[in-house]
Write a structure and sequence with these properties.
This protein has three helices and twelve strands, in the order E-E-E-E-H-E-H-E-E-E-E-H-E-E-E. With about 200 residues, it is mostly beta strands.
Length: about 200
Amino acid sequence: MYRLTYGLFVLTSRLDGRDSGCIINTAGQVTSEPNRISIAVNKANFTHDLVLKSGRFNISILSERASFDLFKRFGFQSGRDVDKFAGFDGCARSANGLWYVTEGANGYISATVEQTVDLGTHTLFIARVDDMETIGDAPSASYAYYQSSIKPRPAQPAPSQKTAWRCTVCGYIYEGEELPPDFVCPLCKHPASDFEKV
């Protein structure tokens, strides 16, 4: 699956005066006449609920200039627990009143949901494009580029007699002979299936 080409985006929405955003890697054009896009969002994300209830969202297209700090801000913490926009100056409000990311992004798209499809763990949103703008000329970041050039390489564990398991998403190291099947990474909240034995 990692051989498929994915872009990386910050999805933002707002409901009842509360803003949030999360990293997603599934957004694409569906039709050009009328102009529609689709996004798939994990139901566990707080931003998913904002999009579902408000019916509006922005997609900020991340570029190769995006920093790992941007991914940590929007990807490694939940909007249920923190205000991801607090103290963050790399954003602006679009005409629809939602934030979009300007730092490390090369464009944004504002959209209104027209249809939803329940995919079990995710919801597929089909949306009408209301507005869009190019805000930079750096190439768009792919998931492969993120893995090779943005995400820091995890520190190699010191040689020991212990077995270690590394999170393939953030690099967190768990030490133990067996990784519990219900283990969740304390940094990025990914499940045991995203760990590899090192």
